[in-house]
Design goal:
This protein is α+β, with helices and mostly antiparallel strands. Strand 76 and strand 77 form a beta hairpin. This is Peptidase A1 domain-containing protein.
């Protein structure tokens, strides 16, 4: 009705002003222009009133309330609207929104009167000049009653601005309007013939913008990994809707698809050639009066031709974050393509997103009369978002109020039919590329593409980028490797750290773009600049487009992923109106027309906050405990239910159950339990609901029991307590007690955790308004954790690996499994076996596999297991493949270091692996027998793969429904630290360990081997000894192992045995040795003690010359080499078992005690000490692999002992040297200073020492001065009396340092074992080489010799 009034008034307003003669007209054309502008202004006002009233009717109550509150700005009303109350008086107050509506309408009506005042003024009988009438009009307007602002005209403007507040009209519009008002109020001589009508015309244009509906639409975006294509799903059809997957393309003008995929063609109708719909399509054609359209195919070389047709298209409205109600575009124009080159499942066609007039976005915004905008957020995995007429973008953790998405604006050209932005410069880690200006400025701009997978650059641009990137990467320690097609520049990915979700830590690439006040930069991090070509190689994700490409810069989807891109296609309406205000006020008419002609210049909004870079955590988080019932292998949590008397009930965790069900008789009180009625919205929203009278019922399968049973229960509501927070209306069902089967005695029911509408976690996240996610950590023992709202972040955040959830609408948690690995070797499986994915279950105890998958897994596992000393044993139901560990494993805790089983799943930049180690792959069934903890599910099971709880134990598993991603923690192999007990020989002061060579079941050969920090061989033994092991094998000359020992290897021709030169600490030159392999037994440790004995194959060596070890004391048979060489024990164990390159040493001071050597990590028994270690850089001899540190000075009781010419690494760490040896002049100065400070009686020297003292009456340690070794970095290695004085005979002690004379050429001192005793030392050989040390453990009333080995 309002529109009819509007049109009627438009016709008559010309007559009003003509009769009034309010404007001095120079001619008929000028009169017409004046009348038109007047009518437009009036029409805009009435349309605004009509639109506002419609919005009152359409908006949800919450939005409506917030709109009125925003308009009225009354805190009192805000509080009354924000709280729900049962008080009738308070409820009556809440109806004051009607009063707000009345005032808003009054404001609009006031503005309407102001626009009609010229007519009434002209009816005054007296004659007035146009200038006088203008003054009368302004005076009358300003004297009208004011509600909130300075003038009625401004009131109308501001009210309309509030009305479209949700559309984000910028605040500077307020300032511009106020500026207009000040000019008018100050009487600047405005006349109706001057700029006044131009302002009114501008106001009309702004009012017309308000006529747009404030609505927005959301479609999901999916990434097809094999083709790197991004598509959305659109429902096409009127009665029978056909969901079609359509590729998103910013360059296609008219949507085209395979119409054979439509389920029904009844509502599809062709377009005639002479119809308006055909004529508006640029480049249309005809065939038998049917409209045709031909356009380029983004997926192929041939053009696409198709008949233009029309049908309805359906999609959802949104509040910015959630899908709301379905709407239909009743007349959606597209083409049925003839040739479908490049289209492959799951894509059925191409959705046009170009700036052209026939694109999907233009059709939607025009038909629904909404803001002409679109926004894309392409996902790297999971589900992305495609907004049409976007207003709010709610993507957690961003919301629409306190934490909005930061955006950067840049101009965009669309006149070519593409989206082009101007790239002014390119930076790599802040350094600009040196480019010919014509390369960037001479082109038409950088084209944005949702089809091209990687950014394509002109050859000169690519070369400059790659060269700068390579230099920056090499400076960060990232080495370049051979290229992997189709990429030209690739790098070693082994040692590149990751920055959470921003990808590998590589140089940042930035594009410089024009902004509002200067250049702005669009930054791309590792996730968008690199692509993983293999496990070891990553490549620069840019293409060289050649010297003469069609577009010099095409920004592809890999770079656009995880950024929100907003394309604003409005020019003179909506958002861009703020620019129009500025142009009209500050520019001349010529400049204004020039800007109007730049219709192709629009705006692109880029969110520079990459969503994947942000940890999605919430301020609110809830935690419930998880307990394992060992007899039934069931995992449950305890939940408090009941408002009157809290009833703790134990509920089984089930990822398949949608609605929680339990035996309500276990509740202490039923007084506040409420039945849900059939007619209630709660009952209607539960899928599969039923009725019993007026009571809502729910039927669902029970996850337990021998035979499938459907559990039926009445749907009820009561209060539940979660982490001391109250969930007031927890919906669940009271199951029939006779139907409850298979639950452990202490369990009352099942807690629903499915992806459905009513699982427990979704009720909590909805009620408390937190991020829709939860996480589980099922315990193998003790208490596990059930988080709602996510896993807590922080500095100690659990490292997680992300993978998308598959087909979340199925009601199950499914993973896409791409491959299987055992011990690093992939299984040969038919791809069809893996198509169904793997379902996660918290009820099935062991992973169930289809027979073919199981057989391949078991076969490969058995082959790997037997190679490390395991023997096949008879099966134990339900397990088929079992193994005997051998006698050494009896009465040992833990499990054997068995082959690792890995599942390959899709990740961010390619396949990622979920690794399962011993505790998750085998189960102990007898004292020495373990079985493969997987079950054969048969040839035709319902599901090919169900991952059970035994495999999920001790992993943190996070389900995030804001991104439809699952994350699993990166579990380290356990055990991960090798332990060698150390013994001190009293006679020789050597520190040695005992190693068992050979298989434990075949009389292993035990050898005592001295610890050598400079040794290059894992074990150096006498040849006549090592051959006694029946499992020892010589390495042949032409074998693959021998070739790995080059370049310092040779062949001993007499026996065709591979030889190698090996460094040692007790010989000046490397020894000529022969190589062989054998299985060696080690202990592995946990913080609570020894877990088990493991076997590891090692490469050993023995001297070719039998006399090479003649000087070795008879107490030992050789040495264990721990130097930094490729074949030392440290290198072989850490490389083979993927441990950290780290070792810790604690030398015992007494023969009766056992010290410890830990390889692969720090000592787990001295955590109280290891927290307070001092550190200094570790210097490694590149020739021998020995370890050195820099001693800057020596202090005795604070007095400095002078050193010689300091060289890097002037102090060697040597465990074979019994005492510290100093260069001659340093030794003499140290002895002199020590004797001067010592308050002890000096006695005759006892060789090999030169400073001895009487120990009679020496009970006070203060009489012995301490010696400090001041190392690089300023730390002091303090040596107390226990490590200074050696008891040589009764009542005589000597200073435990030796004179090295002048023959020490390469170092100034050798720090020996005596000074290191009862100190914890750690050598870190990872990113930075570091030597750490503690003070004497005797100061803490402990020692290295205390027996910590269980």
């Amino acid at each position: 009705m309002l529109i009819n009034i509007c049109v009627h008034l438009r016709e008559h307003v010309m007559t009003f002003f003509m009769q009034c003669n309010i404007f001095p007209l120079d001619g008929k054309a000028r009169q017409h222009e004046f009348f038109l502008r007047s009518a437009q202004l009036l029409e805009g006002t009435i349309r605004s009133v009509k639109n506002l009233l419609e919005k009152f009717h359409q908006s949800p109550s919450s939005n409506g309330r917030s709109l009125f509150i925003h308009l009225m700005d009354q805190k009192k009303k805000k509080n009354s609207l924000a709280k729900a109350t049962h008080n009738p008086a308070e409820n009556l107050k809440s109806w004051k929104w009607l009063d707000a509506t009345k005032q808003v309408f009054a404001l609009y009506f006031l503005g309407f009167i102001v626009t009609l005042l010229p007519y009434f003024i002209c009816q005054v009988p007296c004659q007035h000049s146009p200038t006088n009438r203008s003054i009368m009009w302004a005076t009358t307007s300003s004297s009208l009653p004011r509600v909130a602002l300075h003038s009625p005209l401004l009131v109308a403007c501001v009210v309309q601005l509030h009305c479209v507040g949700h559309c984000r009209i910028p605040g500077h519009v307020f300032r511009d309007l106020e500026w207009i008002d000040r000019r008018r109020a100050c009487g600047l001589g405005l006349s109706l013939g001057g700029e006044f009508w131009r302002w009114l015309e501008l106001l009309w244009a702004w009012k017309s913008a308000i006529y747009l509906y404030i609505a927005q639409y959301l479609l999901p975006i999916t990434k097809h990994e094999p083709t790197q294509q991004f598509y959305t799903t659109l429902d096409i059809g009127t009665t029978v809707k056909s969901p079609l997957n359509l590729l998103l393309d910013l360059g296609t003008n008219l949507t085209w698809l395979n119409c054979h995929q439509l389920q029904s063609l009844t509502s599809l109708h062709t377009i005639a050639c002479d119809s308006d719909s055909c004529k508006v399509i640029p480049g249309n054609g005809c065939n038998e009066n049917s409209c045709l359209y031909q356009q380029p195919n983004p997926l192929g070389s041939e053009n696409i031709t198709g008949r233009v047709v029309q049908d309805a298209a359906s999609f959802s409205t949104t509040d910015g974050g959630n899908l709301l109600s379905q709407v239909s575009l009743r007349i959606f124009t597209f083409s049925c393509a003839y040739n479908l080159q490049g289209v492959s499942p799951p894509v059925d066609g191409v959705l046009s997103l170009s700036p052209g007039s026939s694109s999907f976005t233009k059709q939607v915004t025009s038909d629904f009369n909404v803001i002409p905008k679109l926004a894309l957020c392409l996902p790297s995995y999971g589900t992305g978002r495609f907004y049409v007429a976007g207003v709010y973008y709610i993507i957690p953790p961003f919301d629409n109020s306190t934490n909005q998405i930061p955006k950067t604006l840049t101009p965009m050209r669309t006149d070519s039919g593409d989206y082009l932005i101007s790239v002014q410069s390119i930076y790599v880690d802040g350094t600009p590329l040196t480019l010919n200006p014509n390369l960037l400025l001479g082109g038409v701009g950088a084209k944005l593409s949702t089809v091209v997978p990687y950014t394509v650059l002109h050859t000169d641009i690519y070369n400059a980028l790659a060269q700068s990137f390579t230099l920056k990467a090499e400076a960060m320690g990232i080495s370049k490797v051979a290229s992997v097609a189709p990429f030209k520049d690739c790098f070693d990915a082994q040692n590149v750290a990751g920055k959470d979700m921003t990808g590998p830590n590589v140089p940042k690439i930035e594009f410089g773009l024009p902004g509002k006040t200067g250049e702005v930069t669009w930054g791309f991090y590792g996730a968008n600049t690199m692509v993983k070509a293999s496990e070891m190689v990553m490549c620069l994700a840019f293409y060289d487009g050649g010297m003469n490409p069609n577009d010099w810069v095409v920004i592809g989807t890999h770079q656009l992923q995880e950024y929100l891109l907003e394309f604003d296609l409005s020019t003179s309406t909506s958002i861009n109106i703020r620019h129009l205000l500025s142009n009209f006020i500050t520019t001349t008419k010529k400049q204004t027309n020039k800007k109007r002609n730049m219709g192709g210049l629009m705006r692109l909004t880029v969110s520079l906050s990459m969503f994947a870079a942000i940890t999605l955590t919430s301020q609110a988080q809830y935690l419930l405990p998880i307990t394992k019932d060992e007899p039934t292998k069931q995992f449950y949590t305890t939940l408090d239910i009941d408002s009157a008397a809290k009833s703790p009930v134990n509920l089984l965790l089930d990822l398949q159950t949608s609605l929680t069900w339990l035996n309500c008789r276990k509740l202490k009180s039923l007084s506040l339990l409420r039945l849900v009625t059939c007619q209630s919205s709660t009952c209607k929203s539960i899928p599969g609901n039923g009725c019993d009278g007026n009571t809502c019922l729910y039927r669902q399968p029970t996850p337990l029991g021998v035979t499938p049973v459907v559990t039926t229960g009445r749907v009820v509501q009561d209060r539940a307590t979660v982490s001391k927070a109250s969930l007031p209306r927890f919906t669940f069902s009271c199951a029939e007690e006779k139907r409850i089967q298979g639950l452990a005695p202490q369990l009352a029911g099942v807690l629903g955790l499915s992806p459905g509408q009513f699982p427990f976690w979704r009720q909590v996240t909805s009620a408390f308004n937190i991020i829709p996610k939860f996480a589980l950590c099922l315990p193998s023992s003790g208490t596990g954790h059930f988080y709602i709202g996510g896993v807590k972040g922080g500095n100690n955040r659990v490292p997680m690996t992300l993978t998308p959830l598959k087909n979340i609408g199925s009601g199950d948690y499914l993973l896409s499994v791409q491959s299987f690995y055992v011990g690093g070797s992939p299984l040969s499986l038919s791809p069809s076996l893996l198509e169904g994915g793997a379902r996660l279950s918290t009820v099935v105890p062991y992973t169930v596999l289809q027979t073919d998958i199981y057989n391949a897994l078991a076969r490969s596992f058995t082959q790997k297991a037997t190679k490390i000393g395991m023997f096949e044993a008879p099966g134990h139901a339900p397990f088929t493949d079992c193994f005997d560990e051998g006698a050494s494993s009896r009465n040992k805790r833990g499990l054997k270091n068995v082959p690792v089983i890995e599942i390959g799943v899709p990740g961010r930049a390619g396949e990622v692996k979920w690794s399962f180690h011993g505790e998750n792959t085998v189960v102990r069934v007898m004292e020495t027998v373990i079985c493969l903890a997987f079950v054969d599910g048969g040839k035709k099971p319902k599901e090919s793969m169900v991952i059970g709880t035994h495999q999920l134990q001790d992993y943190m598993i996070d389900f995030d429904f804001s991104t439809t991603l699952m994350a699993f923690s990166v579990k380290k192999p356990n055990p991960s630290v090798f332990l060698l007990p150390l013994i001190k020989d009293k006679a020789t002061s050597l520190y040695y360990t005992n190693l068992n060579l050979g298989n434990i079941n075949h009389s292993p050969l035990t050898q005592s081997l001295a610890i050598d920090f400079g040794g290059g061989s894992a074990a150096l033994l006498r040849c006549n000894t090592v051959v006694k092991s029946i499992t020892y094998l010589s390495i042949r000359c032409n074998s693959a192992v021998c070739k790995q020992t080059k370049p310092d290897s040779f062949c001993f021709n007499k026996t065709n045995t591979c030889g190698k030169y090996v460094s040692t600490s007790f010989t000046e030159h490397p020894l000529n040795t022969l190589l062989g392999t054998d299985s060696v037994s080690f202990l592995t440790s946990k913080p609570n003690g020894v877990t088990n004995s493991v076997h590891s194959p090692l490469i050993l060596s023995c001297p070719n010359n039998a006399n090479a070890l003649r000087l070795m004391p008879k107490v030992v048979n050789g040495t264990i080499g721990l130097g930094n060489s490729s074949f030392s024990l440290l290198s072989q164990l850490t490389s083979m078992h993927k441990n950290r390159r780290k070792l810790s040493l604690c030398l015992p001071s007494k023969p009766a005690g056992l010290g410890s050597l830990h390889i692969g990590g720090v000592s787990p028994y001295t955590n109280d000490v290891s927290k307070n270690l001092a550190s200094t850089p570790l210097v490694i001899d590149q020739t021998t692999g020995g370890y050195f540190i820099d001693v800057m000075s020596i202090e005795i009781a604070g007095n400095v002992v002078p050193l010689g010419k300091k060289r890097r690494g002037n102090a060697m760490i040597c465990t074979l040297a019994p005492y510290t040896v100093l260069q001659g002049f340093i030794y003499k100065a140290l002895v002199s200073e020590f004797v001067r400070e010592a308050k002890m009686l000096r006695v005759a020297n006892v060789k090999p020492f030169n400073a001895c003292f009487s120990s009679k009456g020496m009970g006070v340690s203060a009489a012995v001065p301490v010696i400090d070794l001041v190392v690089q970095g300023g730390a002091k290695w303090r040596i107390n009396r226990w490590n200074l004085l050696v008891k040589v005979k009764r009542d005589v002690v000597c200073l435990g340092f030796l004179d090295g004379g002048v023959t020490m050429k390469t170092t100034e001192m050798v720090i020996g074992g005596f000074q290191m005793e009862d100190h914890l030392m750690e050598l870190g050989l990872e990113a930075s080489n570091k030597f750490s040390f503690s003070s004497s453990l005797l100061l803490k009333n402990t020692s290295c010799g205390q027996n910590r080995i269980v």
